[in-house]
Design a protein that fits this description.
This protein is an all-beta fold. The chain has 3 domains: 140 residues, Immunoglobulin-like; 131 residues, Immunoglobulin-like; 87 residues, Immunoglobulins (Immunoglobulin-like). Helices cover 1% and strands 51% of the residues. The protein has 1 helix and 28 strands. A hairpin with a 2-residue loop joins strand 27 and strand 28.
Length: 385
Amino acid sequence: MLGQSPISIEVKSVSDVDVCGNKLFQIYVQTNEIYVSDSIVGFDLYLGYNPDKIQLDQLLVANTLSSQFQNNGSESILTINKTISGEVWISGAYFVEKKFLKGKLPLIAISGRYLKECTDTTEIAILDFIPAYYDFTKIPPQLQITNLALKATVANLSGRSFQAEIKEEIIKIANTDSIATINVYLRNDDIARNKNVELSIFLNRNENINIEDIESTNSTFIIETIERKLDTVILKAKILGVIAKDTPTIVFKIQRKSFNSDTVSAFIIIRKLTDCNCISQINNDSFNIQIQKKLISSVEFEDKDSMSPKVYLQKIGDRYEIQSYDNTLSQINIYNSLGQLLEKINCSVSKVELSGDKLMNGLNIIEVIVNCNNKVNKKLIKYIK
């Protein structure tokens, strides 16, 4: 028996689809649930679009109500017809009685291709929708149709961005610290299609600080390679999905190389995105690394000649560092308070690390020999452990 109540079909949603540059897209026409009492045995759907920007090609009936038409062979028909430029007519119908279309799935879907680059938007709209329930031998009853406004926006680029952000404008390396942690927040708007990204960390004065360690803290952001250059570190990473914007994506640690106060400008720069053209805007960020005054735990070696090279000793945890920033350390001698030589270290570097057990409790004398301008300069310091 045929349904007797008026048909009420409502398009529930308006959707945006991000595509551009000859990319494929799919549009689903969603209706309210169709019950047995108001089932339909046919419909005509007219869609309008701009043929200069998009191309509508194929019906997609899987997981839609219209799959019932496709599965009934010669007893039904489901076609897509291009009537005039910028308009398609989708027709579905059963040719026998007591065949009904009902359920909760979308009515039908259609695939297409966007023909332009990522510079504008366009719309696909329902021009007319005519449902019917009858056996095609009788005049159909009066039909009721509500809310037929469906707009599928293609290449909607507004607000689609990839952003790198450092929430702190100034990163301080304090008096008692030699390492600072930098948290990089990445944000992507619907970027699951972006499979790879390349970004760089640029330091404008890298002679004062050094990037010690870099790691990803987000399971969807996989760092594949790290390339270190003179003043830049380049990361190449794979994106497995949408990046959580409220937690750091990348954490890198920096170490000071100078005991003097200084401010280093740093930049996070997105160099390349691949496999997706739907991002219209890339936002980079900059920040300053502030190296504060000479460490309290650092002691300058005594020397009466103001033109002699500067050499520093500082305690870091359970170890000690002796360092000259402009010259080479040749030899380090450690004496006890009686002047007895405890250890002699020959070297040819700018920095030497000593473990805490190298120095005895009480008064120690450390003598450092530094090569400077082909001269030998002795530096002495009395250091109380």
